[in-house]
Amino acid sequence: MDKQQPLLSIGIIFKNxxxxxxxxxxxxQPLRKAIACELVMADTGSDDGSREIAEKYADILIDFPWIxxxxxxxxxxxxxxxxKWHMTVDCDxxxxxxxxxxxxxxxxxxxxxxxxxxxRNYKSLDLEKSGMFSDxxxxxxxRMSTGTRYEGAIHEHWNYIPDGVMNILMLSDTxxxxxxxxxxxxxxxxxxxxxNMKLLKAELAEDPNxxxxxxxxxxxxxxxxxxxxxxxxxxxxxxxxxxxxxxIFGPSILRHAVLAASTNNLxxxxxxxxxxxxxxxxxxxxxxxxxxxxxxxCWNVENYEECIRWGDIYxxxxxxxxRKDFDRSDIISSPVSMSxxxxxQNARIYLSAACLFSHMPERSHSLLSGLDATLMDIAQIGxxxxxxxxxxxxxxxxxxxxxxxxxxxxxxxxxxxEKAEIRCAEFLRMSAGVFDQSYQENEADFCRPAYTLFIxxxxxxxxxxxxxxxxxxxxxxxxxxxxxxxxxxxxxAAALLYALEQGIEFPLPGHPIGIEELANIAGQxxxxxxxxxxxxxxTAENAQGKAGLAWAQSLLIAxxxxxxxxxxxxxxxxxxxxxxxxxxxxxxxxxSDILCEENLFLLSPMHRFxxxxxxxxxxxxxxxxxxxxxxxxxxxxxxxxxxxxxxxxTEHTPEIQSPPPSEELKALAGQIRSVxxxxxxxxxxxxxxxxxxxxQQVAYLIEGAAVPVKGGLPQ
Length: 715
What we know:
Layout: E1 8-14, H1 21-27, H2 29-34, E2 37-43, H3 50-57, E3 60-63, H4 70-78, E4 85-88, E5 93-95, H5 100-107, E6 114-122, E7 133-143, E8 150-151, E9 157-158, E10 168-178, H6 186-206, H7 211-221, H8 228-240, H9 246-263, H10 269-279, H11 284-300, H12 304-322, H13 341-357, H14 361-368, H15 378-394, H16 400-410, H17 417-432, H18 437-441, H19 462-470, H20 475-483, H21 493-501, H22 515-525, H23 530-542, H24 545-562, H25 568-589, H26 605-621, H27 625-638, H28 643-652, H29 663-676, H30 684-690, H31 693-703, E11 709-710, E12 713-714
Parallel strand pairs: 1-2, 1-4, 2-3, 6-10
Antiparallel strand pairs: 4-7, 5-10, 6-7, 8-9, 11-12
Helix pairs in contact: 6-7, 7-8, 7-9, 8-9, 9-10, 9-11, 10-11, 11-12, 11-13, 12-13, 13-14, 13-15, 14-15, 15-17, 19-20, 19-21, 22-24, 23-24, 23-25, 24-25, 25-26, 25-28, 26-27, 27-28, 29-31
């Protein structure tokens, strides 16, 4: 630094900021080289090595014991500054490389005593690449000759609004990046909120009607305590009653109120939206934050006309905000929350759907064009899938270019390759639903099935191949499409099920598949529906060769696991088919000396169970009901997951069910009831009667007891 009087004093207070302090100080070096600067720092009690870093950079480094007062610490720094100007920087901030506008301002005489710059608050670890940030015009630069001091133990600020007149220049091209909201573990965050709220509550107790303090309580509490809504209601009432500075803090307060009502599903939501539009129709908070929330609310209640109106307000205001063509004094009190690319894309997706449902497909198409998938999280990926499918199925517009552009954007390794993989996985997962028969049944009145949207991706992913399968003219074409796939696991189950119903045989010709992959595919297909069970039974009945049997066996095992065992006909058919298939399958894969009871431990659990099923049904077919029950019960020790099936078979196999009582038994039960009615329940004669053989034969008819069982079989 030059030995002349500094033009600028940079003030920083810190305590245990080892994570980010050096990054902050390094970012200031270009400014310190461009103009005469001094760096004045106050350590409020570090013990993590932060002080040693500060010593390398600071021109003046002092100790200031922490007294729960941020303003006091800031003012202690100001007292040691000698520059013409003072600029405050926090440790978890770093100055953007573009300092031209800042140097221009500090080097000239412009008649301003204060200047604000943009603090960009990131809300994602991916920082600016995620699109999750908000900008705040923070007044951080003051002319030292004004003698201005910091006020406020928490959320300290300069009293720079004398008589409501602002003498501030906004340096909207100068950015302090801030990631303190991201790199905070939950426990640290909790303690920070508790500390801040303790200080704010003390100030609010002294000035309970202060809209500034109420707004700061709302922002600091962040809906974490039972007091949060009390602050919201009090602040809204203060705006209604035109409390001091209501016109300054009112737009931000009503924005917070609408957000609270939306988040907590409060009945005041529409009332507070209307209040914001009535009181502050031109405010950037109303036209961006409130408009975005109103857009979402109107979408949820299917008021598409209002959804479009608020969406238009939002998009117009966002354009003005990006051009910096708005009253920038708005964002001195608080940041605009929903101006980042993330929220903009969300708004475009919802607005697009509202336009489509309002018979404006061309505008819907335009809104969905050019979206940047690299900025999206999985929730937005789900929304864009729905948006694309709505547009495609409800209009005849060409969506191919739209889809291909988005696919290319989504696969870009930005901000990381891992994020791209997560996006693609969610895109494929959400899109798979349109192939389901139930989804297609709801498309009867649409222009075309939604799944045809994905045909342009036929050579790019399993989803596109699935669309081509369901759009194919014949079985040979389907076979060719599926044979070209590296893995059938990427094909949505509904498309595979459709292919099988068209007569496609698995494994595909010239496309060998291992038993494990067959089991995985069968597991994907499994569903508790007649459609699936009919396919399984048909496949089992017509299975040929070793590979065909392996496929039938995989389907049957998947069907047994999926079955709820409520339908008697289906359950009995599946059980029989499983036993019959296992009877042929097991000897093909295992030596005969293994397929005996003492060596069953060498088989997998389901094959052990299959062996017991074979023995059980062989015994049943031979008329040996007791052995049938024996093998079913012993199968429970072979495979623990078949209890429901065994219970079903013991209760529903017709051959072992007790026949209806004969007329003679009914008559005997009636006679015994008559005798019992003549005696008190505790009469010794009743006890003797119940011990008789005659009573035991009909007890289940009289008492509703279980059918008498002997030797493991109902009698």
